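User: Small ask, check this?
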Amino acid sequence: MSFLYHTFFFDPLYNILMFLFKVLPWADAGVMVIILTILVRLATFPLSRKAVLAQAKMTEIAPALAKIKEQYKDKAEEQAKLTLALYREKGVNPFSGILVIIIQIPVIFALYQIFLHFPEVNSALLYSFVTEPSHISTTFLGFLDITAKSAVIAFLAAVSTFFQFKLSMQGQVQPKGDSFGNNLTRSMQTQMKYFFPVIVFFISYKISGVIALYWLTTNLFSIGQELFIKKNIRATQV
């Protein structure tokens, strides 16, 4: 696992950062994190696009799913069978967004480890075609040490998480009735929308400004990406 982590995440991200510092000597570490985040999101765009399309299809078939749940509420096996059949018919994979989330975990962990020792450079980790930058500034926009904690960026990361969830949940049909399953679904949706941003704030603040900035940037990218894809979906349906 350590070999895979260093081969596909830590070492590539480290070398990309060093390369960026070399070719963009005017840019500070915060700007580099933003650029790196955008590059990561562009690399995973095909996966995240599938996730957004799947979410749009889930919203589209939500009334049919609700009808199945209501009609077969006492027949769990039949309900599951018809739900899977509907997914196959509409070409929906409800788990298509999981891979994008999983990829973010080692990226965040790698960024945290990389910036633990900044602005030192470990030349042993550099690829043969990457040279050590002469100067690395960890002061974001001239006043904020990106390697330290930042309540401001953590707050912005939390706010952007709220709006990202709110956007992704638009058009979803709220389950009706007071059954255990419906109450659990409504509770989970509410917690994801309001409670998870609070968790994001405390995690991103506790770790460092680097992680908070990465989270903020990836949320803003996700919001823009989702708006763009949904706009194209509506354009093709006209």
